[in-house]
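In this section we walk through a basic example: taking a raw amino acid sequence and producing a predicted 3D structure, encoded as discrete structure tokens. The instruction is simple. Fold the sequence below.
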Amino acid sequence: MKKAFTLIEIILVFAIISLLLSSGGYLTFHYFLNNELEEALETLKSALREASFKARAVEGDSEWGVKLQPGSITVFRGNSFVGRNPSFDEVYQFANSLSLVGPSEIIFSKLTAEPSVVDSIIIKTAGNVSKKIDIQKEGVIY
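The resulting token sequence is shown next.
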């Protein structure tokens, strides 16, 4: 008598393998999205703090600001993004799949580093997972 697998046993094994692979793919995808979100959040916090510190230190005897655009954050010297000197720009990239909600330009006044807007910036993923950064009147960033 030959020993072999039945058709039902083979189908059951393939079903279990398919279930494991699909759930693993789903978890990996969400891990990747959350990782992109955390990376963008830390990049944005760093850029805001950098502009605030440079304004407080009166670096270049000027105000410093942050411009938020799809896929990038620019730290610039000047009282507006349009009137800035581009040679002092520092550009940070983040995933294009993320969207930013809030002010698109924040200027920190020199010496006091008070922001031009007191608001929140929300970073969202395509799956509607979001993180929020608060900019306080004293230039404190949470």
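Looking at the output, two observations stand out. The chain has one helix and seven strands. The domain at 7-134 is CATH 3.55.40 (minor pseudopilin epsh fold). In the next section we compare this with other chains.
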